[in-house]
Amino acid sequence: MVTPAFSQDTKVDFAPIVLSESGVETFEPEYFAQFQPQTALDMVARLPGFSLDSGDGGRGFGQASQNILINGKRPSSKSQSPRDILEQITSETVVRIEILDGASLDIPGLQGQIANIIVSAGELSGSWRYSARFRERSQPQILEGGVTLTGKRGDVSVSAQLDFGQFILDEVGVEKFSLPNGTLFEDRTERLTLSNQRPNASLSLGWTPQSGALAGHVANVNLSASLLNRDTSVRERFTAVTNAGRTGVSEVGTGEDEIEYEIGADYALPAGPGELKLIGLYRSEDSDFPTRFVFSELGQTPLRQTIFRDDKETETILRSEYNVIPAKDHTLQFSGEYALNTLKSDSLFTFTGAADTTDFVEVEENRFEAFVTHGWRLSEKFNLQTSLGAEYSKIDVLSIPAQPRDFVRPKGTLSASYVISPEWTVRGNLERRVGQLGFGNFVSTVNVTDVNATAGNDKIVPDQRWVIGAEVQRNIAVGLSGTVKAEMQFLEDSIENIQFADGSFGPGNIDGGHQYSLEADLTWVLDELVTKGLRLGLQGGVFESQIDDPITNESRPFSGDTQWFYEINARYDLPNSPWAFESEIEQSGLQPRFRVNEKSQIQFIRPEIEFSVIHKDFLGIQCTVGVQNIADFKFKRDRQIFDTDRLGNLVRQESFTRRRGRRLVIELTDTF
């Protein structure tokens, strides 16, 4: 159990932050004392103007994309997110946290602010967390929690985590079907329930010999496994308003049962003038997706439809990195990677009065990637990093008699940063980015709720884009700090819903497209201006995109793209007290979604608002009680269905509104 350290600690007048001339921010443990963090995740969450980036989630390791380092090293696990990794580190073992500039490091792909968590593991320690959620009209969520352990003995370190991962959701709403002229012809009431269980466990072992012939070698083994059981049910009762409508009930049940595991290892050793690192990983997912649909119209024989899909995915990665310092203020890394990804998807479709049909898809991708990365510290304040490479990908759809397709795509990054003063830093980057095809693009699917189908496309190619970005960062212990970033993206081979020669719809490539964005991540520490212990946080962004519609040839935004978002939070740690108060408000806007013959718009009516009260020493543990969705926000979807395509006549309009209800959350956390 951590000894309480409340904000009445008067040994430090202001937050203990060290700002260097090179722009490095160093946060000592005393900075976080007023928050009484349990894990490194709690500490990182309190860094002013910093937010975790989970990376792109693409296949292979590729270049680094997560914006955290542990003791200066990039995490080598793929299945664990930055949150998972930081939750395994107890706050007692954190020596300090450094905010570094990505362009100053010898790690390709890192840009902007990077949090380097310096950890010194000792005797076995750990943390635990339990939370319960009670929601209107829904079952209580009482199986959410987890425990972590970490420790070191001699040259061997161990870290383990067990999480129970429960989430329950309930929504109610109304839906209206209208004719093209707006005449209501059918009324519906609906209820959605979601139950998600995802217990998962991970184990990491490290070996760092400090003496002998193997001194300087580093070895890590990472094991993780998870089970997923997700059940979603939508029950509707519909009533005819005119003769064009129907009366009856329907129910859709969908789910996913998944077993996933990952085995990974890396080994680093001195080699010649530099360091060689070898990485290997194997990941497997086995997922079943059952769908059951029953439509019972009054006076008619019920219609039944079932879809059973079984997906098996594997990933094998071999990667090597060689780092060397060829001259003062210069770093070089040579990296190469091979990744083999496979998918086998087997589907069975049944429908009342029709013969059963099946669909089998088998896809294999062999991918090779090589990069040379050069870091150059031109001065104490100016850093430059260039990373040049290429990717070769061979995709073979083995389930059809087609020739494999291969691609050679150059890619790379040029990033620079300049420290104007310890308080101000500016950055810029130019990147040639190559996307990855989701294997789901090759698989045909049916949405029984919206009554539409998406055909797989074995001729689709990855998108490519040029990315130009610039940002300004301010570091300050007390006052307004954070980052404002602007970015432009110019796309090639964008992926949108298109119509194929046989009349079916599915994902395909179209030319052009661009996106502009402006985002801010700010923290305002109000210790001096208002009162000690008060801070505000703001995250927000606006996005503008444009692409030529493949059906109408008109310019429109990217389908379903985020248009704007904001998140404002406040925390007040009451001086000379174990009490703290937190509040948060967030909302976002989305662009319309487009299919060949559909257009839909989702709107979030009223923001999501929550408020929490925290006691840092309630019977020796930290207790949080909060109320979520105070404003009882709703979301609305308007959908238009056209004849043949969106140039055809409007067939009908659908509009539904759903609400989730307020939630009471109780969370207990502690360390040991």
Keywords:
disordered N terminus; Maltoporin, Chain A; 2 helices; mainly beta; 672 residues; 22-stranded antiparallel β-barrel
Description:
The protein is mostly beta strands. It has a single domain, classed as Maltoporin, Chain A. Helices cover 2% and strands 63% of the residues. The strands form 4 sheets. It has a 22-stranded antiparallel barrel. A 5-stranded mixed sheet has the order 1-2-4-5-3, with no helix packed on it. Strands 21-22 form a two-stranded antiparallel ribbon. The N terminus is likely disordered.
Summary of the model, kept short:
With 672 residues, the chain is mostly beta strands.
Draw up the topology in text:
Layout: E1 17-19, E2 25-27, H1 40-44, E3 68-70, H2 82-87, E4 94-101, E5 113-119, E6 125-135, E7 141-153, E8 156-163, E9 166-178, E10 184-197, E11 200-207, E12 218-240, E13 248-271, E14 274-297, E15 303-324, E16 330-351, E17 354-377, E18 382-397, E19 405-419, E20 424-434, E21 445-447, E22 452-454, E23 464-474, E24 479-492, E25 494-499, E26 505-510, E27 514-525, E28 534-548, E29 555-556, E30 562-573, E31 579-590, E32 593-595, E33 598-605, E34 608-618, E35 621-628, E36 634-642, E37 650-659, E38 663-671
Parallel strand pairs: 3-5
Antiparallel strand pairs: 1-2, 2-4, 4-5, 6-7, 6-38, 7-8, 8-11, 9-10, 9-37, 10-12, 11-12, 12-13, 13-14, 14-15, 15-16, 16-17, 17-18, 18-19, 19-20, 20-23, 21-22, 23-24, 24-27, 25-26, 27-28, 28-29, 28-30, 30-31, 31-34, 32-33, 33-36, 34-35, 35-38, 36-37
